[in-house]
Every structure is written in C-alpha cells, then in structure tokens.
Amino acid sequence: YVVDTLSKTSFLERVRELGSAFLRELFRIKESCKWHVREIRGIGLMVAVDFGSGAKAFQRKLADNGLICTTLGDEVLRFLPPLNLSDEDLEEAVDIVEETCINQ
Fold first, then answer.
1. What is the distance between the alpha carbons of residues 99 and 89, in angstroms, rounded to a whole number?
2. Is the pTM of this model over 0.85?
3. What single-letter DSSP state applies at residue 47?
4. Which terminus of the chain is more solvent-facing, meaning fewer CB atoms within 10 Å of its CB: N or C?
5. Mean pLDDT computed over every residue of the chain
6. How many beta carbons lie within 10 A of that of residue 67, not counting itself?
7. Whole-number Å distance between alpha carbons of 92 and 18
C-alpha cells in the first residue's frame, strides 16, 4: 500500500508543489526580513537554509515557537516535513519561520 501510494504521479506532484511553495515562501521571507542566509535549496519537501553560522540558535528559536527541524552543524537548517503535509500545516510552518525571523 505504501509503495503504491508513494509511486502515484499525483502524490509525487503534490510533494513537488508543496516543496516549491515552501521554497517560494522562504525566499519571500529572506527578502522581507533581510534574513542573513547564504543559500536556500531543496528538492520536494526536503529543504535546507544555509546560514553560514547560527543555524543552531535559529533552530532553538523555531522549536520554542513550535516548529521542529534539524541542523547540519551550525551552518544549515534542514526541514524534513512529512510527505503528506497539508496546506494548513505548511502555512503554519511558514508563519512560524517568518515570526521567528522578524523577532530574532
């Protein structure tokens, strides 16, 4: 069942659409908040924000605001949401990232 679901073109398209939307929102936040990051990159819903340094501190602030993510060292913040992420959950995550960025 899981392999069949993951193999469906419609499921994979949805993951690509959500990932693209997430990336667009992160780039928007970067510009509006003057977020100091070197690079934002991703494929599907696997998204990374390269800070150069300070990713762990930002991760702690996100966690304090209710969003869990991981880091790679102190440089990269990594988002790995579930593939069945809803539009509402994505919007909530974006809101938390933006609020955290504004208030840092």
1. 15
2. yes
3. E
4. N
5. 93
6. 19
7. 13
